[in-house]
Design goal:
This protein is of the alpha/beta class. It has 8 helices and 10 strands.
């Protein structure tokens, strides 16, 4: 289980997260929604170790990791795909995938190679292996970015706005792939998303964030998107 207990975070003297309590069970899908600028990306960066915790605790697989560096959390099974994908634009698709392999360090007999399932889920990773990542479309880049995260063999996958700027047909492909990732790999997913139809089709539960605090939670199956739409409006 991934669990946050009263997590707070700040940029300098400006606090942006207040007492966040959140948990994700194994193979569960949870979506985090809210307006731009309320702290969603900061929360993902804090969970992944890219932003320091000011207060509270982060538990990963039962271990306290709030003071653990990002690379160690990655080696413990936490993968993060940032908004904007975070690919190395001048490197090839294959070279970008290889960047995920160091996260396998310390995992015993785990093979240091690109899993065949990555190519099965995202054929673009094989078909365009030699092409520079910066020359791909936004949807293609997103598939490569998720593929790179899967190379690390995660237990928990954090996704920040994976459908942003992507055409609907690719969004459907990504939803299908993420569903297989949960079912076949038993990977839990925390999804920050503005596209409610996508989030509700994929996630089991939701959290709403306002001004750095979680203000509502529930089951997507029991909550129509219209009931939470107000949290996304300007």
């Amino acid at each position: 289980m991934l669990k946050l207990e009263n997590v707070s975070a700040a940029y300098g003297q400006s606090q942006v997260l207040w007492d966040v309590n959140l948990e994700i069970a194994d193979a569960e899908a949870v979506t985090l929604i809210g307006r731009n600028g309320v702290g969603k990306t900061t929360l993902l960066r804090t969970i992944s170790g890219l932003h320091p915790v000011m207060g509270g605790g982060v538990r990963l697989n039962g271990e306290q990791v709030e003071r653990t560096p990002a690379f160690a959390r990655a080696r413990s099974g936490l993968a993060y795909v940032p908004q904007g994908r975070g690919l190395f634009s001048q490197l090839s698709v294959h070279e970008n995938l290889l960047m995920g392999l160091p996260a396998l360090g310390g995992r015993g007999t785990v093979k240091r190679e690109i899993p065949e399932l990555v190519y099965d889920l995202f054929p673009i990773c094989r078909d365009m292996a030699g092409r520079k990542a910066g020359n791909l479309s936004g949807g293609q880049q997103q598939q490569v970015a998720i593929g790179r995260a899967l190379v690390t063999k995660p237990r928990y996958l954090l996704l920040d706005e994976p459908t942003e700027g992507i055409q609907p047909s690719i969004v459907q492909e990504i939803e299908t792939a993420l569903t297989r990732i949960r079912q076949e790999l038993r990977v839990a997913v925390l999804l920050v998303e503005q596209y409610l139809d996508f989030a509700w089709a994929f996630a089991d539960r939701y959290y709403v964030m306002q001004k750095g605090r979680l203000v509502e939670t529930g089951l997507t199956a029991e909550t129509p998107t219209g009931a939470v739409q107000r949290y996304l409006g300007v």
